[in-house]
Design brief:
Blueprint: E1 2-6, E2 15-19, E3 29-39, H1 41-48, E4 58-59, E5 63-71, E6 82-86, E7 100-104, E8 108-110, H2 117-120, H3 124-137, E9 144-148, H4 153-164, E10 168-172, H5 178-183, E11 188-190, E12 199-204, H6 210-213, E13 216-224, E14 238-241, H7 248-259, E15 267-272, H8 276-285, E16 291-295
Length: 296
């Protein structure tokens, strides 16, 4: 089978398509025939060596939508089921940017019925990140939340999930994105400076760091999206960062919200698997609204 991997760190040109053996599922695992797999900034980070792993073959890809192709012992999934999953890990030898991928059975959920596989592939990593970041914030109904990067993949899901939790959401994004983020339910929109100490919490999907921390009131809370990279606490503000965990049960809840129309999936562009390097180059150009998705 084909797989997108990195053997030497670098730019988009470092992405290779190699022929490798089809992986076999072990106990508690399933193999998925990949129909679509989203490209995320985490993949660009792995390619550039941000997460380490020098001298190893690193498989790319976290998100997957496809069909159960084989199952190990006692997994509870049946060959032929349409599923989505998060293949967690930055140092795996094979990722979801491949013809087949093996994942733990408890990382899997039935695919949404309301969207195709390409759109379904945008859900696992980004929606789980948004939901788990909101869990870390632990806000109560009516409290104010500022979401930076609200038009991005994680930010947009965060806005919709936060509104559903009854939070008063302010969306920070570019001026041209105002109509979109308001359509997600954001009650307020800002594109520039925010008054210091004006919100109960910030979910920093745009990775603004200390600048965004200034906008949180004394004793509020700040959650970032890069593990262990949150700014130091000041003024009694609790700071944390989400480290996404594979969670099939939670993913199933998010899939249900897609089917209910609560969560909006967005695809910017698709690329064939063999053009993975071109997809990485496009991601690096910036300005992508929605996810780039690889299709084997």
């Amino acid at each position: 089978m084909r797989a997108a991997v990195v053997t030497e760190f670098g730019g988009p040109e470092a992405v290779e398509i190699v022929e490798t053996a089809v992986p076999e599922p072990g106990a508690g695992q399933i193999r998925i025939k990949v129909a679509a797999a989203a490209l995320n900034p985490a993949d660009a980070g792995a390619r550039a060596g941000v997460f380490g792993g020098a001298g190893k073959r690193l498989g790319l890809g976290w998100d997957v939508a496809g069909t159960v192709d084989a199952a190990g012992v006692a997994v509870g999934w049946t060959v032929g089921e349409q599923v989505v999953a998060l293949a967690y890990g930055v140092a795996k030898s094979l990722g979801t940017h491949a013809d087949y991928v093996v994942v733990d059975a408890d990382a899997v959920a039935v695919a949404p019925a309301s969207v195709d596989a390409v759109h379904a592939a945008t859900v696992p990593l980004n929606a789980l990140a948004a939901a788990q970041a909101l869990d870390l914030l632990a806000l109560e109904t009516g409290q104010s939340l500022l979401v930076t990067g609200a038009a991005g993949a994680v930010g947009a899901y965060a806005v919709q999930l936060a509104v559903r939790r009854g939070l008063a959401v302010t969306a920070l994004a570019r001026e041209g994105d105002e109509e979109f983020v308001r359509s997600l339910g954001a009650g307020r929109f800002v594109s520039g400076e925010v008054a210091p100490g004006s919100v109960d919490a910030v979910l920093d999907a745009a990775i603004l760091g200390e600048k965004a921390l200034e906008w949180v009131r004394d004793g509020g809370v700040f959650v970032g999206v890069i593990p262990h990279a949150q700014p130091a606490s000041v003024r009694g503000v609790r700071t944390d960062a989400v480290e996404v965990a594979a969670d099939g049960a939670r993913l199933a809840e998010l899939v249900a919200l897609v089917d209910e129309g609560v969560l909006t999936t967005r695809v910017a562009e698709t690329f064939p698997l063999e053009a993975a390097a071109k997809a990485h180059a496009r991601l690096g150009e910036g300005g992508v609204r929605g996810r780039l998705v690889l299709v084997p």
